[in-house]
Amino acid sequence: MEITKNDVEQAVGLLKILISTPSVSRDESAAADKLQSYIERSAPFLGTVHRHLNNIWCIAPGYDASRPTLLLDAHIDTVKPVAAWTKSPFTPVVEDDCLYGLGSNDDGASLVTMLHVFYKLCAAEQSYNLIFLASAEEEVSGKDGIESVLPMLPPISCAIIGEPTGMHPAIAEKGLMVLDCTAHGRSGHAARNEGVNAIYEALPDVEWFRTFVFPEVSPLLGAVKMSVTQINAGTQHNVVPDVCKYVVDVRSNECYSNKELVEIISENVKSEVKPRSLRLNSSSIEQQHPLVRRAVELGRKPFGSPTLSNQALISGVPCLKMGPGESSRSHTANEFIKLSEIREGMEIYLNLLNGLKL
């Protein structure tokens, strides 16, 4: 079994269709329609193409509940194009080895390579069940994305999340938690020695967020990182503010759950601390898992990723993140994927998964 020139051309052709169809998060229906139509037309052997909202999935023929099940997931949505684009973000353009367009690198290349390798794997008997999922709302961790689909799927034993990693396996990734914090004071006239300035009340806590180091450090992800990213206080220049609100971005490692981090933070600061969500925890997969071992045998290098993906939303399922392209190109102007990376991605996925024993 090998990847042919025609396989690559089909994958690139689908990617051009997806680039040409705007699919900003929560507005992916047109792209989902085209993807569903493409799968039904190109792979009638799959039978039913399942859909929930803007999520599309297929189950490889011959599903057997007694076997483990591997999920291949890549997302269909994109961020909004930034203002610095000099090319048209929705017009696929090939120059030399590069295909330019919004979502080409994040996450179209992973999606089309996974899908066409999925087709290949369906043609040969495997010791595991295989599901391909094109998920929605990944860029916003939306409730109508992969979380809404997982209850509709058979039990998942492990997963590969397609994201641009240079086809190296991210075996751990940092979690995300956003905190809304409020420091309280008492209003008064700024000209007199009145009131309690809420900004001054917040300053020791802001300094604590800047300097505190959580003792547990991950060998793959490093330390927990906290950054105060927004501050708002005051109504006018001559009124001592009685409230100071600020936002903290917290990137967790696998040593702490988000719930544990909130408890530690609340014990150390005077401000009120309210997490917007606790669901995006750090995640990791054992280095001895068959997926990781097989990737290493193929010369791929495991690493820890600072960026978030759907991996955070597949609770309790061993996952790794791996796909063609480079994370540094994601969300940038004139985003691109190399055609050679698409071919390499298809070949590595196929060698990783064909004959894999889970």
Structure explained in plain terms:
The model has no long low-confidence stretch (mean pLDDT 96). The two termini are 20 Å apart. The chain is an alpha+beta fold. The protein has helices at residues 5-19, 29-42, 104-122, 146-149, 198-211, 258-268, 290-297, 339-353, and strands at 50-52, 55-59, 69-75, 93-95, 98-100, 129-135, 158-161, 170-173, 175-184, 188-189, 225-233, 239-240, 243-252, 272-275, 283-284, 303-305, 319-321, 336-338.
Arrangement of strands in the largest sheet? 1-2-6-3-7-17
The assigned structural class equals alpha+beta
Backbone shape: elongated
Strand content: 15-25%
**Sheet having the most strands:** 6 strands, mixed
Which percent bin holds the helix content?
Answer: 25-40%
Number of strands: 18
Low-confidence stretches: none
How many helical elements? 8
- What is the distance, rounded to the nearest whole angstrom, between the alpha carbons of the first and last residues? 20 Å
The ordered string of helix (H) and strand (E) elements is: HHEEEEEHEHEEEEHEEEHEEHEEEH
Question: Could you tell me the radius of gyration in angstroms?
Answer: 23 Å
Mean pLDDT: 96
